[in-house]
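User: Can you recover a sequence for this backbone? Please restate the input before giving your answer.

Assistant: Of course. Working from this structure:
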């Protein structure tokens, strides 16, 4: 069944039935390395090449694309530049095609990574307060991927993604939904929903992941429901991307640094009821 867009008087986000499990307010002097790895899929490249540019201060995480920043993986992803955090890592040995989010069928592991599970929940409610960027070459996103210790545990839940090219004054298209990648149980169900929201200001984006469906919210209002659900632990990916190869001829490059600001991240675990217990079995 395809995802649906909420119409008049959409439901409100309800955190009853959930208990706060993880909260990061980015109010310390350093990144919480017990929660976040500051690299983007480093097994397809290297930790040095895939290292995030970021700053923490004033209660904000600021992920940045800097003017002199090199592409993260030119062998397989061209001139794309990324500053991203993730809450897990898994890959095979050097030369192996085994690794999380194999976005290009040519990709092989270039640098072996230790297996890391910092935060890999299965089901829950997840929220982030963040500010996007209107730069036409940039995209910001919070998404989840399967830990992929088994090849078919590879679906994606996109909590939100915002391309700068889709941002207008007071309006924006906000992507949300699920992608199967290597999971045969999931059907691609993703939509960029246009909303009357100034995404260059702070807003709260959320996903409620249950055994039956995934519900997507913006500022506490239900925007979209997908009637299917990955059934294995997933990790978080949080980042800003620059796609210079997609730039229109003559289009401005924007100013640097290009910045994705995050105020806080919260994750709630379900308080298990009998029905949810059945879904987890």
């Amino acid at each position: 069944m395809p995802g649906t867009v909420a119409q008049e008087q959409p439901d409100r986000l309800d955190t009853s039935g959930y208990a706060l499990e993880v909260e990061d307010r980015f109010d310390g002097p350093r990144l919480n390395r017990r929660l976040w790895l500051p690299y983007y899929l480093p097994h397809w490249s290297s930790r040095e090449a895939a290292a995030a540019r970021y700053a923490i201060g004033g209660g904000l995480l600021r992920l940045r694309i800097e003017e002199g920043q090199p592409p993260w993986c030119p062998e397989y992803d061209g001139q794309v530049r990324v500053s991203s955090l993730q809450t897990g890592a898994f890959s095979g040995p050097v030369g192996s095609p085994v690794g999380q989010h194999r976005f290009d069928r040519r990709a092989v592991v270039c640098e072996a990574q230790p297996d890391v599970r910092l935060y890999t929940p299965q089901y829950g409610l997840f929220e982030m307060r963040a500010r996007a960027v209107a730069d036409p070459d940039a995209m910001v996103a919070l998404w989840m991927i399967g830990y992929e210790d088994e090849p078919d545990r590879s679906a994606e839940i996109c909590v939100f993604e915002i391309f700068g090219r889709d941002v207008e004054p007071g309006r924006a298209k906000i992507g949300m939904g699920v992608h199967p990648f290597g999971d045969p149980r999931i059907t691609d169900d993703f939509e960029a929903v246009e909303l009357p929201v100034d995404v260059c200001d702070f807003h709260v984006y959320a996903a409620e992941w249950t055994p039956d469906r995934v519900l997507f919210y913006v500022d506490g209002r239900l925007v979209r429901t997908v009637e299917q659900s990955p059934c294995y632990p997933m990790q978080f990916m949080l980042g800003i991307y620059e796609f210079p190869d997609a730039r229109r001829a003559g289009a401005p490059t924007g100013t640097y640094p290009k910045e994705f600001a995050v105020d806080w991240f919260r994750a709630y675990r379900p308080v298990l009821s009998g029905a949810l217990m059945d879904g987890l079995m």
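That completes the design. Confidence is low (pLDDT under 50) at residues 5-10, 274-279.
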